[in-house]
Amino acid sequence: MEKLRQCLLQSASKQSDLIEIFKAIDQDRSGRITFEEFRAAIKALRLGITNDDEIKQLFQQFDSTKNGQIDLSEFLQQLRPPMNERRQKAALNVFNSMDVDKDGKLTIVDLKTKYATQLKPTKRRSSQSIDISLQNFLTKFDTRGQEDGIIDKEEFLGFCSMLSATVKEDVYFEHVLRSLFDFHF
């Protein structure tokens, strides 16, 4: 698993890159990777895994629902680099600060409430353009193959995990989160 993770993460610097890799492996565009598609990808990557039993074991590590297919969520969950406890806490603090209604999901309403003073319409920026910008922002986090404009904790932590993989120091990671989300903790 680690060999595959390292190989794919070398070409992926953000979560959207992993989504594109998933789409490339999903040859039939079903939104799920079959064993045959997975086997073809493993062989194409030339990881030194040629035995079908080994490939099947690796496939089963991804297929956490044991339905014989890998969906995007399962794929990302296996490939995202883990965050240490300090980084997870910082990411959750950011998420919780933006989740104004405390329902465990970030929506346009949450963001408009949290950033109300910064999102006031002006002569050059209409209320409608603000809504479109916020919707586009939320869509960037969607990882379940549907762009519902709602970010749950798993999606947010997935984004932060990919970001974390590019930042060496915990203090700098926290600084990047503060800068991205204008949050002080």
UniProtKB/TrEMBL annotation:
Keyword field contains Ligase: no
Single GO term (MF): calcium ion binding
Keywords: Calcium, Metal-binding, Repeat
InterPro entries per record: Ca-bind (IPR051581), EF-hand-dom_pair (IPR011992), EF_Hand_1_Ca_BS (IPR018247), EF_hand_dom (IPR002048)
Source organism, top-level taxon: Eukaryota
Pfam family, one: EF-hand_7
Stretches assigned to the EF-hand domain: 13-48, 50-85, 86-121
Protein name: EF-hand domain-containing protein
Organism from which the protein derives: Rotaria sordida
